[in-house]
Design goal:
Chain lengths: 418, 418
């Protein structure tokens, strides 16, 4: 395993990460900064102040995405963005997202200070709004609005469980602006923690992402009949939670049954009505997701699940309303760009591995929108993520920062050549 | 099936019920008036105004129980209380509770007006605070504090999911007083809808309750490890919701498997942490209840369930923390009193049936506390309850009111003879 940064570059990320991990620190080593919360606003304010202090030109767009550009926005030059997100999961880890935003700050300023930005290109750091989708659905919200695949109005109208809307929070916390950068973007780079165990298991420094897994997701409602949990005879009950429980177990077991690792399944969110201890639930909403590299396998799994739900209905009386399946295609990243980036990273004496991303990322959105994109992974200890125990070593952070700098230089060259 | 009230008595309950069902009307024929909500306060205010208008003396105690007495409280006479509760389930029905509170008003005033209250006894109507336990746990809160089996401090400190305490709402809505009536109570009568299908199925007018089912209840926490729903390999996941789903299905199936109707099981409330679409849950809390007439069967079922949970842990890695089991004993009601009440009800040419109550009621609390208690049921159409479709016919309401009047007269005679 190599260590980059021996020439004094790439030493900034561990310190920046330590500093930002104090904002919303939770569960010891973790953070909790839900999108558009007070703590998210604090982190955004700190980031903006730091950008300004380092001489970056700060912009915000209508969905609250933040940009720190080396040159002012009115330049006619193509723009290369580098970033990720500062929002976290509830009880989240401190690496997921932050690594990419703070790495971008270090890399962009470092390249500028060392004269490595070609004069024909503008380079900027970015913090995308609400990547996690924990509080407001959908996830990757800010980058999706930026890329034009989610309407601004739909995003602004999204509301949390207390009926607070994205628009309300952007206004309350004064987080939005009116900058329009989307038309100028010619390249995007992101550094992220792997969130899986493969790099660590194989002793590899840097993952160069070459594609995404497909994902099928659907909202399901189990419908029963609300009645008293006491006197109603068991045979007369149509208990939505019983039906939902069987369905949720079935979803998990479809994934468990594939021992080749090509199918990941989960239900992680649900809402029970009325959720009163003495009333059998009338409705249980839950979100099903199926992920894998093979869309045909996902389609078969979806059909198998629908068959299982039919069986549960026949036995329990609980009906299932399955919403429209959102089908995220398995996408490829630009292979020539990945080749060039991988070569540059190896020149730093770091080992690399081509791998897909299973999780969604802002880079996945940019790539799908046709922007030349490079996404780099650093190892996640034991693959633990969305958890305070999430961990990436300082050595890996320094390696990641150096790799990101190399990737951005390669991307700038590519943009100039286009 | 008989119809009481041919002499002009017992005709008040249907009209009163219609009037109060406008407060918090929901889902067409249902109501939603959670304990200590604004709508509960409105209903309480209307009740108190009506009591005062009818010349009853109004008192409130520290937990917000309301009393409307025929004679002022400072009398040295033994007190016979008649009542139930005005709070409802979320998406609840309009008969559960209201029938007993409004029936009490009609019966107490009717007896007084017709000179049927013996001079040695004081009689009062009562509305108990938070019978349902939907918003604040435990259920039967007001009657339990009154009976001395739940401390006032514990009840006041109970909080809802938004961390609002019972004490906060009592103060905000000015619902508490400082009357102390518990020491004077010598008898209690309650009219309630059956909430099961038996009276209707057997064509019986009035159920005379002779005992309660036992209930074993426990709070359970399923513990997993929070991680990303995407990249984490299935074999590495310890998903608390998967474990909880299997456990909840198992609870239901234990009850389903007993085809003799002597075991009712349910999980109706749960809370998921963090409940974020992309993070496998770290913890799922849920409430298990087992009910039946046979405590030995409940103990065996509890042990069988614990064995099943152990099996789920072995297979999924999800650990279960099972809290202390609250074991509500199967209790008998005073058999001699039930005999007398049944005889009086039959004199009205109403058919009767001795039956247990499976649901908890304020009358169950009073009976367990040693107060001579009578609890009468009227039929619930199809046994549907805790649901807007809950239905009891006007004929059955009129029958119930007449039966309650007869029962209270019998109870007064019993109290005088004691």
């Amino acid at each position: 395993m190599g260590i980059a940064g021996e020439d004094g570059t790439g030493a900034e990320l561990p310190g920046l990460l330590e500093r930002f991990s104090e904002i919303g620190r939770k569960n010891g080593t973790g953070i909790e900064r839900l999108a558009l919360s007070d703590l998210d606003a604090t982190a955004r304010g700190e980031l903006q102040a730091l950008w300004a202090e380092r001489g970056l030109h700060v912009y915000r767009d209508r969905i609250g995405n933040q940009f720190g550009l080396v040159q002012p926005l009115d330049s006619a030059k193509p723009l290369v963005l580098v970033g990720s997100h500062l929002d976290s999961q509830p009880d989240g880890g401190r690496f997921d997202g932050q690594v990419g935003v703070l790495g971008a700050l270090a890399v962009v300023c470092g390249m500028r200070d060392r004269g490595l930005i070609p004069s024909g290109v503008n380079v900027g750091a970015v913090n995308w709004t609400n990547e996690e989708g924990a509080r407001f659905q959908p996830s990757v919200m800010g980058s999706s609005v930026f890329a034009g695949v989610l309407s601004l109005d739909a995003a602004l109208a999204s509301s949390d469980t207390r009926e607070v809307r994205v628009a309300d929070e952007l206004e309350r916390l004064s987080l939005a602006g009116d900058a329009e950068l989307a038309g100028r973007v010619a390249g995007y780079a992101e550094l992220h923690v792997e969130q899986g165990p493969r790099l660590e298991e194989e002793g590899v420094d840097i993952g160069v992402v070459d594609g995404t897994w497909a994902a099928y997701k659907a909202d399901v409602v189990a419908r029963g009949v609300q009645t008293h949990t006491g006197p109603t005879p068991m045979a007369k009950r149509i208990d939505a939670l019983y039906g939902a429980a069987r369905a949720i177990a079935a979803v998990h077991e479809l994934g468990l049954a594939r021992t080749d690792g090509r199918l990941h399944t989960a239900v992680a969110w649900m809402r029970i009505t009325p959720n009163s201890p003495n009333a059998t639930p009338s409705a249980v909403e839950f979100k099903v997701e199926l992920r894998g590299p093979d869309e045909e396998l996902l389609a078969r799994t979806r059909d198998e699940l629908l068959g299982l739900l039919g069986g549960i209905t026949a036995e329990s009386g609980v009906a299932f309303e399955v919403g429209v399946w959102s089908e995220r295609r398995a996408e490829s990243f630009d292979a020539a760009l990945a080749d060039e980036v991988e070569r540059s990273v190896r020149e730093l004496r770091l080992s690399t591995k081509r791998m897909p991303t299973i999780a969604g990322h802002d880079a996945v959105v940019m790539n799908a929108a046709g922007v030349p994109t490079t996404l780099l992974f650093v190892p996640s200890h034991d693959g633990i993520t969305h958890n305070a125990a999430e961990f990436t070593s300082d050595v890996d952070l320094v390696n990641g920062e150096a790799a990101l700098a190399a990737a951005v230089q390669r991307l700038c060259a590519r943009v100039l050549a286009a």
